[in-house]
Design a protein that fits this description.
The protein is α+β, with helices and mostly antiparallel strands and 208 residues long. The chain has 2 domains: 3-109, no CATH class; 123-202, Nonspecific Lipid-transfer Protein, Chain A, CATH 3.30.1050. 50% of the residues lie in helices and 7% in strands. The chain has helices spanning 3-18, 31-43, 45-48, 57-68, 72-80, 93-109, 122-140, 162-168, 179-186, and strands at residues 147-151, 157-158, 173-177, 195-197. It has a 4-stranded mixed beta sheet, with helices on one face. Helix 1 packs antiparallel against helix 5 (72-80), helix 2 (31-43) packs across helix 4 and helix 2 (31-43) crosses helix 5 (72-80). The relative contact order is 0.13. This is TIGR03085 family protein.
Length: 208
């Protein structure tokens, strides 16, 4: 089972267990808001685009309000069944959803006091690393100095053009630690066990 499929099942069960009013690490969102986002993302990508495209903002708001009025458990259970057959996300589940579901799973877990990092399978870490190779350069590219991330047990990822790194010499910022924690850091989430070297004030995490 891929990590995306495992996270969908475990996150769905956690959402059902927590109920609609539990906190998350997404600012302004409780578990109901998160469940609605997940379902809207797969069932109405045009509405989801309203988060980024101004002319669709009202449409996104209207569709979100409709789902917020639905029974919470029905929303979660519908999302747990997977994307509809017409949505391409159904056929690229691993590529599209590995990071999305892992981060949102942790959004619910880490909103509670006393959270601890999970122990993940080697396969899970490999899949998160593949996601990180794409995500880290995107999320950190606006940093004023090149950022290099070194995930435990995997090759480093240079989050800048290599010629820029060469020109800067040692004037770079390095982030080392477990793959899941670096991924969550790139999304601005609570983390642990990360080691920073260099001018961390130069880091600019993209807001999405």
């Amino acid at each position: 089972m891929t990590l995306a499929r495992k996270e969908r099942k475990e996150l769905g069960n956690l959402l059902l267990d927590k109920g609609p009013e539990a906190p998350t690490c997404c600012e302004g969102w409780n578990t109901r808001s998160l469940a609605v986002h997940l379902l809207l993302r797969e069932n109405n990508p045009v509405a989801l685009a309203g988060l980024f495209v101004a002319p669709l903002e009202k449409y996104h708001g209207d569709k979100t309000d409709q789902l917020l009025r639905r029974n919470y458990q029905d929303v979660v259970k519908e999302w747990m069944t997977g994307a509809p057959v017409w949505n391409p996300l159904r056929y690229i589940d691993k590529q599209a959803n590995t990071a999305e579901y892992f981060v949102h799973h942790e959004d619910v877990r880490r909103a509670e006091e006393g959270w601890q990092p999970r122990s993940l399978r080697t396969q899970d870490l490999s899949e998160l690393y593949q996601a990180l190779k794409f995500i880290a350069p995107v999320m950190l590219k606006k940093s004023s100095k090149p950022v290099i991330v070194q995930p435990d047990g995997f090759d480093r990822i240079v989050c800048a053009d290599r010629s820029t790194v060469a020109a800067k010499g040692n004037d770079v910022v390095r982030i080392a630690g477990p793959v899941p924690e670096i991924l969550l850091y790139c999304y601005g989430r609570p983390t642990t066990d990360l080691i920073f070297d260099g001018d961390t004030s130069a880091i600019d995490i993209r807001k999405i």
